[in-house]
Amino acid sequence: MSLPAAYFTKALKLLRGEVFVLPSRTVVLVVGILLLIFPVFSQEPFILRVLIIAAIFAIFAASWDLLSGFTGQINFGHALFFGVAAYTAALLNLNLGLAPWATIPIGAIAAVLAGLVVGIPCLRLRGTYLAFATLAFPLILLGVVYAIPNITHGELGIYGIDPLSGSRVASYYIAIPAMIVLGFIMWKITDSKVGLIFHAIREDEVTARASGINTTRYKLLAFCLSGLFAGIAGGLYAHFVKAAGPSTLELLLSFQVIIWAVFGGIATIYGPIAGVLILYPLTEFVLIRYFSVPSETKMLIFAFIVLLVLLFMRQGLITWLRDKTEKICPRCKLQNVAWRRKCRVCTAELD
Amino acid sequence: MAENIIVYGLVSSGVYALLAVGFSLIFGVARIVNLAHTAFYMLAAYLIYSLASSVGLNLYLSIIIAIVTVTVVGTISYKFLIARVRQHEATTLIVTIAIAVIIQEAILKGFGGQPRGVPKLISGSMEIFGVTVLNQQLLTLGVVILLLLATWFFLMKTKSGVAIRAIAQDRAVANLMGINVPRMEMLTMAISVGLAAIAGALVAPLFVLTPGMWAHPLVMILAVVVLGGLGSLQGSVIGAIILGFAENMVVFLAPSGSFLKTSVALTIMLIVILIKPEGLFGIVFEEERG
Can you tell me the ipTM of this complex? Predict the structure, then answer.
């Protein structure tokens, strides 16, 4: 058997054994493929624009989840990372003429530094105090942005920077793979030992420390990782809309990201991504075009949908669906379809 | 200059104190972070505007109707929305944000985005030590002081007040002592929203009304309660005075001060909690020790 054929059968086996056994993973695969081939069906610039921004915000919401959902350090000022990266990328591009492939990583590094600036002083705080303290950082920076208009252009923001790529479809093929790859990396991080430690810190920090975990280091690591991914999202956003304005630092964006993440279900990574991919196109596009909702009531309907869903699915939509369709094997802790009698791996009885 | 800082500083401090005390009360008793708190304040202001200017009711009557309506709306939304999800901290946050957004969008739809004004309850002004003070500002201050004293008296001297403080200290034991905890929490929510509504009624004649007017006071009262210490009423009042004056000093003294006022107030809050993580008068809650 030739080498490509061997790889092909191996991939098929992996798909059958790891993906098709669970409906949730199958859905993720199908949605990923559909998103990747979407421009074959429609190249309408507006739809592509909505999907690109949704993909960018999906990275952003997942990065919030990495920090707040996993380590339990609720960040009320997540827009800081987005805004710092967006402004850094825009300023570098405008003043030094750096191309997007250089400004986006530098912007992400700036966001990591912002993560340290927030994370180090906030190590002493927990719970509600931490949430309210983090709220302050983007708003302080926003005041500074308004106060020095000759650098930041004040309320107008920095506009006229280079686009992400030459065409809308090319931008689409940057944003969507970025979301899939970064989302997968974040999910892998949370699935690793580091993710387990993040869980432990959220559940009981004292016990985690007593077990020999340097919780300080891991809490800072969470801030930096979250800043990194949020920063990439911020840089992509600035280059896609060709501007970095005060709206990237505002309270509304910080709240919006929490709404998306909680709507999908926190501490999952895929929940917030699904939350954005459902809510953002729904409010920006589907309701207006197919249900003839006037665009000024879209926020109202958005709030009602979020309220109703959370009243009945208190842990978020995706978590609710997951709990309905999947069971965890009591012996080997692997996920199984809810209607199986025996575990797919260790054949233990599922209750 | 100095007299402006004192007059405006006192008015802002008073309004923030009234809002922060209500916010702190429901947080202390039910551990609910009610991000819709200032949305209720805005709702009261707009209701007064619509009753007085559009329907043409008497101003006093419309103020009373508005305060009662907002209190009822707040209590109902607590009972049917917030109380149902309060076991999940993050979900509670989102539900209160959703309520705030619904109020904002409903106002935007009903009144449009343009700024509105409400006529003053008492017109004219007075000279105190050579400083011109609007009578409405004096009234605002007087009502704030009166209400803060009344709240303090209610919490310290009445049976319901003692019950509320007992729940704030230890919910389980309060329940064992025969206190009807859910009912007391609803009462606390009613008081909390009622104070927010009165604050809205007091500022409606002084500030311009816009559908976005809830965001700035929300940020400020979050800073105030953290600065003063969560769950502490005297902390809220002192925090409100510090930040209310700080904000107005920046506005009147610094160049481009109106942009920086929030930044400076939040920086003060950050510095204080970095030195003293539980705030000035913070209470260490049972479950947050360690």
Answer: 0.86
